[in-house]
Amino acid sequence: MKLRNLIWKELWQRPTPLITSLAAVALGVTALVAIQSITVFSEEKIAGDMQSLGANVLVLPTSVSLQDYYAADMHGQTIPEEYVTQLALARMAGVENLAPKLCVAAEVDSIPVTLTGILPRSEFETKTAWQGMSFLANPVGTDRGCCKKPVTDTSGESDPTALATQRTVQDLGKDELILGSDIAAQLGAGVGDELPLFGENFHVLTVLPPTGTVDDSRLFAHLHSVQRLSDSGPVVNVIEIMACCEDAAGSLITDLTKELPNTRVVTIAQVVEAQIAVNGLMSRLSWVFFGILLLVAGASIASVMYANVAERRREIGTLMALGATPGYVTRMFLGKATILGVAGGGLGFVAGTILAMAIGPQLVGVSVLPLPYLCGVGIATATVIAVAASYLPARRAARLDPCLCFAEG
């Protein structure tokens, strides 16, 4: 009889103890796959949020208690607009763009809206004191040494929808509006329409693509128009800074704090630090659970194999009397362990992926998809554990003396 036929016959004739071991292996792989899948997609969501947000440093009033990076300007506190000039003249390495903002409550046709004042890039370029600032006008192809690519790549900036991703718009008239996607749908407004604000009519310049942030529910107008209409004076709620990542994580924050001591400087890394820490903890715990469960599975497999050898002494003796070599007997047991590991790893991957897809949206608000590489990791590790746990029982079976086996019967 061929080796594989013997292995399958053994699996079918004694399924109960092997199912227990299979479940233990599958449980370990399930825990690993589920937690790792959620962690991976949670990290991708954070990276995507950072990319879509654009700005990665905020300058805020000192009294602000920041709860949500995406609504950092919705606090009602202000700082002088002259801080923007002060930062521009400081010529800090790493500052790619400055975006001062002022948010005020308004109404359009009795519908409450949030009007956000922004300063278009053309305003920076027309200020004599700011002309020649490195972060506004670098020679083409110049790299200040803080970024991985030149900061002069302004492709698409003339398109006002660049505000959604680059946090900047080239031109914005005193009576023009940019609408977020959600508020545009709510107002039923589109490009070219007129909307009344503070008793004046504004023309819709464009509608931003959906961003998944509070920008979707906002109206954007020229900063100075918002200041005039709201009688707030030359103030802003926040100054967004697009900074090179290397500098934002290094000395730039210290430099900004020294330059503007009466403000609070916050990085997006500080805001998402808790989520990143949770992701790291989840990742480490998944490997801990995986290791513990697989050790339990290995002990279970070893116990089952030892019991199997004791129960089948006469059968093993008969095989060896008929010419089966010790190597043949060893391969029979290890083959069974290999099937157990592959099946347990595969089942664990499927169960873990389904579990992650089910609880990912509720647990961390992310959609989870299958990660094929985890299938390979789960199957390979489960197989190694199963084979290692079966090696000593297999060697014990291979050393049985056929004569003694029959004598015991």
Layout of secondary structure:
Layout: H1 3-13, H2 15-53, E1 57-61, E2 79-80, H3 82-90, E3 95-108, E4 111-118, H4 121-126, H5 163-166, E5 176-179, H6 181-187, E6 194-197, E7 200-207, E8 218-222, H7 223-230, E9 235-236, E10 238-243, H8 245-248, H9 252-259, E11 263-267, H10 268-271, H11 273-311, H12 313-321, H13 326-363, H14 372-398, H15 402-408
Parallel strand pairs: 4-8, 5-7
Antiparallel strand pairs: 1-10, 1-11, 2-9, 3-4, 3-10, 5-8, 6-7
Give a verbal description of the structure.
The strands form two sheets. The chain has a nine-stranded mixed beta sheet with strand order 6-7-5-8-4-3-10-1-11. A two-stranded antiparallel sheet has the order 2-9. A hairpin with a 2-residue loop joins strand 6 (194-197) and strand 7. With 409 residues, the chain is α+β, with helices and mostly antiparallel strands. It contains 15 helices and eleven strands. Helix 12 (313-321) crosses helix 15 (402-408). 54% of the residues lie in helices and 15% in strands. The chain is elongated. It has helices at 3-13, 15-53, 82-90, 121-126, 163-166, 181-187, 223-230, 245-248, 252-259, 268-271, 273-311, 313-321, 326-363, 372-398, 402-408, and strands at 57-61, 79-80, 95-108, 111-118, 176-179, 194-197, 200-207, 218-222, 235-236, 238-243, 263-267. The chain folds into two domains: 3-48 and 275-408, no CATH class; 63-261, no CATH class.
Task: Provide key terms for this protein.
54% helix; single chain; elongated; two-stranded antiparallel sheet; 15 helices; alpha+beta; 409 residues; 9-stranded mixed beta sheet
Q: What does this entry show, briefly?
A:
With 409 residues, the chain is an alpha+beta fold. Helices cover 54% and strands 15% of the residues.
